[in-house]
Amino acid sequence: MAYELAPLPYDYAALEPFIDAETMKIHHDRHHQAYVNNLNAALANHPELAAKPIDDLVRDLASVPDAIKGPVRNNGGGHSNHSLFWSIMGPVGTAGVGAAPTGDIAAQIEKDFGSFEALQKAFNEAGVKQFGSGWAWLIFVDGKLTVTSTPNQDSPLTAGHYPILGNDVWEHAYYLKYQNLRPKYLENWWNVVNWNEVNKRFATAKG
Ligand code: MN
Protein backbone atom coordinates (compact mmCIF):
# COMPACT_ATOMS: atom_id res chain seq x y z
CA MET A 1 0.00 0.00 0.00
CA ALA A 2 1.64 3.22 -1.16
CA TYR A 3 1.57 6.41 0.84
CA GLU A 4 -0.81 9.09 -0.42
CA LEU A 5 -0.94 12.86 -0.18
CA ALA A 6 -4.14 14.01 1.51
CA PRO A 7 -5.75 17.15 0.11
CA LEU A 8 -5.00 20.36 1.96
CA PRO A 9 -7.76 20.61 4.61
CA TYR A 10 -8.59 24.23 3.61
CA ASP A 11 -8.27 26.53 0.58
CA TYR A 12 -4.81 27.51 -0.61
CA ALA A 13 -5.73 31.13 0.14
CA ALA A 14 -7.08 30.40 3.64
CA LEU A 15 -3.88 31.49 5.39
CA GLU A 16 -3.67 34.84 3.59
CA PRO A 17 -2.24 37.36 4.22
CA PHE A 18 0.27 35.58 6.45
CA ILE A 19 1.04 32.75 4.02
CA ASP A 20 0.16 33.39 0.40
CA ALA A 21 -1.91 31.03 -1.78
CA GLU A 22 0.83 30.44 -4.34
CA THR A 23 3.28 29.34 -1.65
CA MET A 24 0.67 26.97 -0.20
CA LYS A 25 -0.12 25.47 -3.60
CA ILE A 26 3.51 24.85 -4.53
CA HIS A 27 4.39 23.70 -1.02
CA HIS A 28 1.55 21.18 -0.74
CA ASP A 29 1.03 20.05 -4.35
CA ARG A 30 4.68 19.89 -5.42
CA HIS A 31 7.03 19.71 -2.43
CA HIS A 32 4.90 17.47 -0.21
CA GLN A 33 3.88 15.38 -3.24
CA ALA A 34 7.56 14.88 -4.10
CA TYR A 35 8.29 13.58 -0.58
CA VAL A 36 5.43 11.10 -0.94
CA ASN A 37 6.53 9.99 -4.43
CA ASN A 38 10.18 9.60 -3.40
CA LEU A 39 9.20 7.71 -0.24
CA ASN A 40 7.07 5.28 -2.27
CA ALA A 41 9.93 4.78 -4.72
CA ALA A 42 12.37 4.05 -1.88
CA LEU A 43 9.97 1.49 -0.37
CA ALA A 44 8.97 -0.14 -3.66
CA ASN A 45 10.53 -3.46 -2.60
CA HIS A 46 9.57 -3.19 1.09
CA PRO A 47 5.78 -3.55 1.30
CA GLU A 48 5.97 -4.40 5.02
CA LEU A 49 7.51 -0.98 5.72
CA ALA A 50 5.18 0.84 3.30
CA ALA A 51 2.22 -0.62 5.23
CA LYS A 52 3.13 1.27 8.42
CA PRO A 53 1.40 4.51 9.39
CA ILE A 54 3.84 7.25 8.39
CA ASP A 55 4.60 8.37 11.95
CA ASP A 56 5.42 4.77 12.95
CA LEU A 57 7.80 4.45 10.00
CA VAL A 58 9.61 7.64 11.08
CA ARG A 59 9.58 6.62 14.76
CA ASP A 60 11.10 3.23 13.92
CA LEU A 61 13.72 4.49 11.49
CA ALA A 62 16.20 2.09 13.09
CA SER A 63 14.25 -0.82 11.58
CA VAL A 64 14.74 0.48 8.02
CA PRO A 65 17.55 -1.25 6.06
CA ASP A 66 20.70 0.82 5.64
CA ALA A 67 20.46 0.75 1.84
CA ILE A 68 17.25 2.86 1.90
CA LYS A 69 17.57 4.58 5.28
CA GLY A 70 18.74 7.91 3.81
CA PRO A 71 15.83 8.38 1.39
CA VAL A 72 13.32 7.10 3.99
CA ARG A 73 14.68 9.48 6.64
CA ASN A 74 14.42 12.47 4.28
CA ASN A 75 11.20 11.67 2.45
CA GLY A 76 9.40 9.84 5.24
CA GLY A 77 10.30 12.72 7.53
CA GLY A 78 9.08 15.12 4.85
CA HIS A 79 5.72 13.31 4.60
CA SER A 80 5.24 13.11 8.37
CA ASN A 81 6.34 16.68 9.06
CA HIS A 82 4.19 18.25 6.35
CA SER A 83 1.12 16.20 7.31
CA LEU A 84 1.48 17.65 10.81
CA PHE A 85 2.18 21.13 9.46
CA TRP A 86 -1.05 21.44 7.42
CA SER A 87 -3.09 20.17 10.35
CA ILE A 88 -1.75 22.55 12.98
CA MET A 89 -2.60 25.58 10.85
CA GLY A 90 -6.10 26.78 10.05
CA PRO A 91 -8.09 29.38 8.15
CA VAL A 92 -7.59 32.93 9.37
CA GLY A 93 -10.64 34.18 11.27
CA THR A 94 -11.95 30.80 12.40
CA ALA A 95 -12.39 29.86 16.06
CA GLY A 96 -9.21 28.72 17.79
CA VAL A 97 -6.89 29.95 15.04
CA GLY A 98 -4.25 32.59 15.72
CA ALA A 99 -4.41 35.15 18.53
CA ALA A 100 -3.44 33.32 21.70
CA PRO A 101 -3.34 29.68 22.85
CA THR A 102 -6.46 28.15 24.35
CA GLY A 103 -7.25 25.28 26.70
CA ASP A 104 -4.71 23.02 28.37
CA ILE A 105 -1.81 24.06 26.17
CA ALA A 106 -2.31 27.70 27.22
CA ALA A 107 -1.95 26.75 30.89
CA GLN A 108 1.09 24.57 30.21
CA ILE A 109 2.80 27.33 28.20
CA GLU A 110 2.22 29.73 31.08
CA LYS A 111 3.68 27.19 33.50
CA ASP A 112 6.77 26.26 31.48
CA PHE A 113 7.64 29.52 29.73
CA GLY A 114 6.02 32.16 31.93
CA SER A 115 4.06 33.62 29.03
CA PHE A 116 3.01 32.98 25.44
CA GLU A 117 5.35 35.78 24.34
CA ALA A 118 8.29 33.97 25.96
CA LEU A 119 7.41 30.76 24.10
CA GLN A 120 7.14 32.68 20.81
CA LYS A 121 10.54 34.26 21.41
CA ALA A 122 12.24 30.92 22.16
CA PHE A 123 10.51 29.16 19.25
CA ASN A 124 11.25 31.93 16.74
CA GLU A 125 14.89 31.99 17.86
CA ALA A 126 15.15 28.24 17.29
CA GLY A 127 13.75 28.77 13.79
CA VAL A 128 16.07 31.64 12.98
CA LYS A 129 19.14 29.82 14.27
CA GLN A 130 18.43 26.63 12.33
CA PHE A 131 21.16 26.99 9.68
CA GLY A 132 19.89 26.16 6.22
CA SER A 133 16.75 24.03 6.02
CA GLY A 134 14.89 22.51 8.93
CA TRP A 135 12.12 22.82 11.47
CA ALA A 136 11.40 24.48 14.82
CA TRP A 137 9.41 22.31 17.24
CA LEU A 138 7.52 22.29 20.51
CA ILE A 139 7.80 18.93 22.27
CA PHE A 140 6.79 17.61 25.70
CA VAL A 141 9.65 15.97 27.58
CA ASP A 142 9.58 14.79 31.21
CA GLY A 143 6.39 16.71 31.88
CA LYS A 144 7.68 19.96 30.43
CA LEU A 145 7.20 21.79 27.13
CA THR A 146 10.51 22.27 25.34
CA VAL A 147 11.51 24.12 22.18
CA THR A 148 13.89 22.35 19.82
CA SER A 149 14.84 22.25 16.16
CA THR A 150 15.94 19.68 13.58
CA PRO A 151 17.85 19.96 10.31
CA ASN A 152 16.46 18.90 6.93
CA GLN A 153 13.32 16.73 7.37
CA ASP A 154 14.41 15.02 10.56
CA SER A 155 11.46 14.41 12.88
CA PRO A 156 11.43 14.58 16.68
CA LEU A 157 9.63 11.21 16.48
CA THR A 158 12.89 9.51 15.53
CA ALA A 159 14.39 10.78 18.80
CA GLY A 160 11.33 9.53 20.70
CA HIS A 161 9.58 12.89 21.02
CA TYR A 162 6.03 13.56 19.87
CA PRO A 163 5.84 16.95 18.14
CA ILE A 164 3.02 19.16 19.41
CA LEU A 165 3.74 22.10 17.15
CA GLY A 166 6.21 22.60 14.30
CA ASN A 167 7.12 25.29 11.83
CA ASP A 168 8.81 24.65 8.50
CA VAL A 169 11.77 27.01 7.99
CA TRP A 170 12.82 25.68 4.60
CA GLU A 171 12.95 28.61 2.18
CA HIS A 172 10.21 26.99 0.06
CA ALA A 173 7.83 27.65 2.98
CA TYR A 174 8.19 31.43 2.87
CA TYR A 175 10.47 32.73 0.14
CA LEU A 176 7.85 34.01 -2.35
CA LYS A 177 6.37 36.36 0.22
CA TYR A 178 9.16 36.96 2.72
CA GLN A 179 12.33 36.38 0.64
CA ASN A 180 15.27 36.36 3.09
CA LEU A 181 13.19 37.63 6.04
CA ARG A 182 12.79 34.37 7.94
CA PRO A 183 12.28 36.18 11.28
CA LYS A 184 9.29 38.04 9.82
CA TYR A 185 7.77 34.78 8.56
CA LEU A 186 8.25 33.16 11.96
CA GLU A 187 6.61 36.13 13.67
CA ASN A 188 3.61 36.20 11.31
CA TRP A 189 3.14 32.43 11.30
CA TRP A 190 1.57 32.46 14.79
CA ASN A 191 -1.51 34.09 13.21
CA VAL A 192 -2.41 30.80 11.51
CA VAL A 193 -1.74 28.32 14.33
CA ASN A 194 -4.76 26.07 14.96
CA TRP A 195 -4.87 25.80 18.76
CA ASN A 196 -7.68 23.23 18.71
CA GLU A 197 -5.43 20.82 16.87
CA VAL A 198 -2.42 21.75 19.02
CA ASN A 199 -4.49 20.91 22.12
CA LYS A 200 -5.35 17.51 20.63
CA ARG A 201 -1.68 16.83 20.01
CA PHE A 202 -0.79 18.00 23.52
CA ALA A 203 -3.33 15.53 24.95
CA THR A 204 -1.69 12.74 22.91
CA ALA A 205 1.78 13.82 24.08
CA LYS A 206 0.66 13.65 27.72
CA GLY A 207 -0.65 10.11 27.07
MN1 MN B 1 8.19 22.26 3.48
Structure overview:
This protein is mainly alpha-helical. It has a single domain, classed as 3-Layer(bab) Sandwich (minor pseudopilin epsh fold), CATH 3.55.40. Helices cover 50% and strands 11% of the residues. It is built from 9 helices and 3 strands. The chain has a 3-stranded antiparallel sheet with strand order 2-1-3, sandwiched between helices. A hairpin with a 2-residue loop joins strand 1 and strand 2. Helix 1 runs antiparallel to helix 4 and helix 6 runs antiparallel to helix 8. It starts with 20 loop residues before the first helix and ends with a helix. The relative contact order is 0.16. The model has no long low-confidence stretch (mean pLDDT 97). The site of manganese (II) ion (MN) has 7 residues, from helix 1.
